[in-house]
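Appendix C reproduces, verbatim, an entry submitted by the partner laboratory led by Prof. M.T., so that reviewers can inspect both the input and the predicted structure.
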Amino acid sequence: MEEEYESRRVRRWEELDTDILVRIFQKFSVFELTSGLAHVCRGWRAACCDPILWKTLDLSHMRSSFIKIPLEPYVYVERRSDEALTRILKLSMNLSGGNTRTLIFHFNLFLSDDQLTYTAERCPGLRRVVLPAWNRIKKTGICKAIRIWKDLESLTMPSIANPPYLLTEIAKNCKNFKELKIMGPFEVFFANTLITCLPNIKTLSIRCSAIKREALMKILDGLPSLEVLNISHSHLVEYSGWQPQQKVIVRELDKTIMEKTARLKKFLTCMEHKTCVMCQRTESDEGIVRWYKYEEGDWKVDEVSSLHL
C-alpha cells in the first residue's frame, strides 16, 4: 500500500531534477533569477547557480534614471536606480560563480567605477563585453577592468576622445583580442591609435557613426589582418578647401575605397540616404545617433552576426 502511494504521489517542484530545473530556468531573465527563483528553496538556488545560466549576463534592458548636469560627469543618477543596479550585480555575481563569458550593458546605463571594478573582479574570464556610457567610468576604472579581462576577445564601446590609454591596455593584456565595435564618431586620431595598438584586429564595426574619409583610408591601409569591416548607415564626410574647410558628405564610395576594401572577406555598407531609415537617422543626427529617440533595441543591431545582440 505504501509503495502504491509513493508511486502515485505527485512530485513537488523542489524535488525536480536539477537538470530539468536548469532547462526551465533558461527561459527566465536575470531579473527573475535573482529576485525570485533563487530564493524559493535550496534546490532552486542550486539550479540557479548552474554555469549554463550565466554564460551570458544580459543587462541590456536596464537603464539608469538620471538627469543631465552642467559639470562632470554631466549626469546625476537617481539613488534608487543606482542601488537597484548594485543589487542586481551583487546577486548575479553570487549566483554566477565567475562563469560569465559575455557581459552586456545598456548603452544608456551610467555605471560607476566601483560597480565596474566589482563586476570585473568577479567575472575575470569574460571574452565579450558591451560597455555602457563612459560618463561615470574613469580612466583608472576601465584600465583596471581590462587588466583583469585577459581573455577578452570582443569589445563594444562608445566612442572615446582619448583612445590611446584604453587601446594600449587592451594590447598589453588581451592577447586574443580580435573584434571591436565603436558607437560614435570615428576620427583620424582614433584610426591612428587603432593601427598602432591593435594592428592585428580582424573585425571592426563603425556602423551608424560619423566617419572621416581620411580615417577610413587609414584603417584600410594600416590594418593588414582586418577581415570584416562594417560601415553600414554611417555618415561619411571629408573636408575640402582652405580655412575654413568645407564639410562634404560622401554619398557614394569612390573607386579608391572600393579597391582597398576588395581584399576584405566581408565589407558591409549601406548609403541609401533616400530610402534607408537608419541612414536618414544617422545623417539627421550628424553622425552621432541619439539612440534614445528611436525604437528600444535599435542600438543592439549589427550587420556583423558576432556583434549583433
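Residues 12-53 form a domain with the Monooxygenase fold (CATH 1.20.1280). Additional entries are available on request from the coordinating office.
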